[in-house]
Design brief:
alpha+beta, 3 domains, three-stranded antiparallel sheet
Length: about 180
């Protein structure tokens, strides 16, 4: 009888939720094994299966595939070899399509709240010094373009040239008192 109980419990082990392996920081790398001078790091990537779901609700997961595509899943993203983008709590008795629609609406509302205010160029130009000088606006646009080129890296542009051009544009702005 005892052996049967042990075998039954052992067969359930893969389905149980167990603690993650400890993670140690060893210099500039991380490892599951302790090292000399290493310290234990708290793993904040694990999410409890019912962390946001209240009674009568369930969590569904918005996952991001390695290719960048997003999809909703009833299982944690890690089980699908994907990255977790977001979780949403939805009513449990609904059909899957309705759960996804409600979760998508909740996500859209959250994104709308965090979206920056629309840019109003007339308002910004009225408060900018020397706003009447069109050359100042052209130079500012040139600097912004050069900044984006610099952020793209040397894959497309010579960064020394970008730096020289940006400095020349800023110097001209200073001479014009923009």
């Amino acid at each position: 009888m005892f052996l049967t109980l042990v075998l039954f419990l052992a067969s359930l082990a893969p389905f149980s939720t167990h603690a993650q392996e400890p993670v140690y920081r060893c210099g500039n790398s991380y490892s599951a094994t302790p090292c000399k001078g290493g310290r234990l790091v708290e793993d904040k990537t694990s999410i409890a299966p019912s962390s946001n779901a209240g009674p009568g609700q369930r969590l569904i997961y918005l996952c991001k595939s390695h290719g960048g595509g997003l999809f909703w899943s009833s299982h944690p993203c890690q089980q699908q070899q994907a990255f977790l983008e977001r979780t949403e709590a939805v009513p449990a008795p609904m059909r899957w399509e309705q759960q996804v629609a409600q979760a998508q609406a909740q996500w859209d509302n959250a994104r709308a709240l965090t979206r920056p205010a629309p840019h109003r160029p007339g308002l910004a130009a009225a408060h900018a010094p020397n706003a009447k000088n069109p050359l100042c606006a052209q130079l500012e646009h040139r600097v912004q373009t050069l900044d984006s080129m610099g952020r793209a890296g040397s894959q497309y542009y010579d960064l020394d040239w970008v730096r020289r051009e940006r400095k020349a544009a800023r110097d001209q702005q200073a001479r014009l008192k923009c």
